[in-house]
């Protein structure tokens, strides 16, 4: 129980406590933690010696705090919980609570490297059927390693940032044409944020996932399908993806998700040694995708074939080092049913089956459209916690 007004029973109660960076009245960026409809100003709390984190909570992003490592992440979370639950602290803590509707939420991390995987068997199979009809839906390597690519860290933006329709080349019967994308899409994903780095040449074991990964964000990997289809062979995604990737303003710490780890789908054929994670655990995150306010899909993250621990081990098996602020996303989250897909490519089956939104129909995104991705997770003792949303509105091409 917390003494914070309105927070008990809210999905942002004291068992959740996601971290973010906010600004109020045009001031400097400050680290805070969300409780109910308030932001607890952790920069103010550390300045007043209420929380001790080596000064890292007074910085403009979460990176220095995330670099401290799991023992400090856990002790700071315990201290914040104590401050918000023991009413003896109320007189000094309450002045540090800022109403959420009075703050601007900023990008919570300085993104170091950005990697995007492709770990949903349902998504990969759907895309295979749409793009390579009559052939096996999965390519021969897919069940042997988590497929991924390196994306563009500098264009990762915080939820709420407008997304300008990208311009680029696409194929046509008369040859390539250049112009605004006409097949702009989303990809609903879950992202993992690295806190503790690794040394160049080292390999991070599947067992060390929780020592390196600080927490989870929701991701929208905006995708221009027409640009992507023309450019992606033979080297993979490039300009069809790099124009913008949105993440939630709130980073949910792994400590808040302890009750959400569930057995991941069995893997057949068996995976090679460095990918063998025991226990083999995914996360029971239930995503929703809203298109102009209408819920069009509910992708289940628990159905992902490759786990975040396997993705991290694969990302470093060649000795590539991790940096604080690295972000690796899961790939589009799609379940087995049409109402569970994480992209409009799948929802409209390549644009062949438009969906109805109110009085209008859509295949891909129109200018002015807004997409919002949210998620819930099991919390302790049968409760439910909410992950911060990721939303964005499409602006016309420039
Ligand atoms: Ca993606």
From TrEMBL:
Pfam family, one: FAA_hydrolase
Keyword flag Calcium: yes
Entry EC number(s): 3.7.1.2
EC class (word): hydrolase
Annotated ranges, domain Fumarylacetoacetase N-terminal: 16-108
Molecular-function GO term, any one: fumarylacetoacetase activity
Entry cofactors: Mg(2+); Ca(2+)
Coiled coil region boundaries: none
Domain Fumarylacetoacetase-like C-terminal: 116-377
UniProt keywords, alphabetically: Calcium, Hydrolase, Magnesium, Metal-binding, Phenylalanine catabolism, Tyrosine catabolism
Transmembrane spans: none
Domain of life of the organism encoding this protein: Bacteria
Pathway: Amino-acid degradation; L-phenylalanine degradation; acetoacetate and fumarate from L-phenylalanine: step 6/6
Claim: Phosphoprotein is one of the keywords in the record: no
InterPro entries in alphabetical order: Fumarylacetoacetase (IPR005959), Fumarylacetoacetase-like_C (IPR011234), Fumarylacetoacetase_C_sf (IPR036663), Fumarylacetoacetase_N (IPR015377), Fumarylacetoacetase_N_sf (IPR036462)
UniProt-listed PANTHER family: FUMARYLACETOACETASE
UniProt-recorded name of the protein: fumarylacetoacetase
Organism, as annotated: Micromonospora parastrephiae
